[in-house]
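Hello, quick one for you while I still have it in my head. I'm working through a protein record and want to make sense of it properly. Would you mind checking whether the tokens look sensible for this chain? I owe you a coffee for this, so here goes:
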Amino acid sequence: MESKAGGRRRINTYLINRKLILLFILTLCFVFSSILPAFAYDGGYLGGVKPWSSQVPNIANATDNDLSTYANFSNSSNTMYRLPSTYNLTDFYINASSPMFQLNCYNSSMYLMYSIQIRKNGLTHFNANGIAWITIFYTGNDSSKLFEFDCYSSSNAPVIPSVPSGINVSGSGGNGVLSWGLIPGATSYNVYDGSTLVTSGVTGSSYSFSNFSVGSHNLTVTAVNDIGESAPSVPATYIVLAKPGQVVGLVVSGSGDPNGVVTWTASDSSDQVLNYNLYCNSSIIASPTSNSWVFSNYSVGLYSFQVSAVNSSGEGQKSSILDYAVIALPDSVTVTSNSLSTNSLNLSWSTSSGATSYAIYQNSNLIATTMGTTYLINNLIPSTNYSFQIAAVNDCGQSPLSNSVNITTLGIPPSPPTGLSAGNITQTSCTLYWIKQPDATSYNVYLDGTLTGNVSQPFLFNPSFEFSNLTDGSTYSMTVTAINQWGESTASQPLNVTATIPNPVLKAMVDNGNIKLTWTGLGSSFTIVVDGEEVDLVSNSPYTLTKNPGTYQVQIIQNYNSQQYPSNVVRVSISKFTTPGATKMTGDILENAGLVIAPAGGLLALALALKGSPMLLAAAKAFLLKN
């Protein structure tokens, strides 16, 4: 029988060998631990982030607080952690697929303080003060999964997570993203719309939702762990709008112009429109935020416009289609002019196909538009240069300008002469005078409206013209026009001139005791004057004046055009001796005396011898006149 001393030696040897083996293992762990980071603190949990042994390369998956990840252990594999010395550990949390895990706890001197069989799931509670190292062994012969391993102090024991904060929601229409801040100790999150659970088991800090119905949604978040679920967060309101209504009132300004503006009736404010989509020929060409859009330089062709309104829920119904045609510009025209005057001009031009009107430009300035192909330009300034062009116009715009018509307006003819007067008036001639016109180079003289002559006396202050071949007693209308390079003036005020008439010649003789008067003249009446007194008014010659014997002075006055023309005065004597008739007696004397007395001087001598017998004197005169 073995002695007690020998037994003690064997026991001591066994214990010493066991301690040496354990010390060797711990020494290896200590050597390798120097290359690993300290045991990390993670939201109330103390979790390792690196394995002690390469036998479990994915041990971090069991220390990340995510129950869906794990580390594989097999064939007595193990891993080791060094714990921070500042924590008084009281609990371990184990979640494994098998109870074949052993937890060995060592102090800082690598002395084994505890060896605990790990339960399959849940908390393992013990006083872990002074523990510096932890080794996890898998004691099974197969393989198993370690889903989660955490250790913590009593002050950080698992509790229901705090209420999530930092709730924010954004999106468009029924689709969006709800986000929040992560909560320590939470393993997942639930999302609610009001009291209705939208989703659960969200492990991140956001949730993307879709197809929310139209209306207001009050979204909240709760934090969840093994202990329970937190109270809901402050709600974040998310409103899903109805899509905007159909746009109406689509209008395109102008007609046929390559430049224009598309306008439409703005949507109601309740639609909360973000922008509009403008379609042209079924394609979006613009997304303006206001209810108008300007287009330019469109080529000739047909364009179909539509508009829709867009808000956070999407695009509303498109408007009705509005067709707009851009037409070609009209062709340019060719311009001519005629009827040029001092202040006007007539323009005419060729027709332009497609033109609806024509624009008239004077010295490059638009002065008028017209529908026709002729236009009378008025109010021009005499002796002034002008340039005219025409552009054909339609709804698309205007053609290039036409050729240029350059003209100089005519100058102004002189003013009509003034100051007409007549002089040297005779029975057949007259001299006409007038005042010089400063801008006249010559004058035309008219008699009763007929051009009679031209006077080139621009240097004379009082030009004149001599009329001839007038008819005595006739009245004439005389006018004058002034002439220069620009034309002839209007006629002057007419001057009426009457050619003079001869005074009547009166002859008187006594016949049978009466005075017989004869005369010539143009008067419409004649006044018989005896001894200065008017005795009668007659219309023509002859006239017989019956008077007593005596001597009388006889005269006639010719009345013509309110003028009086006196004749010569004839002295006539009537004798008391009566004869058979002076005429007859004179005839008898002439008939017989001519045979007896020759020459006539004898007859005259006889008459004188007879003391101046009137009868013989008359006979002698008659004879002399006859022969």
Observations:
- Confidence is low (pLDDT under 50) at residues 22-54, 588-612, 623-627.
- The two ends are 241 Å apart (CA to CA).
- Helices lie at 4-33, 582-596, 600-609, 614-626.
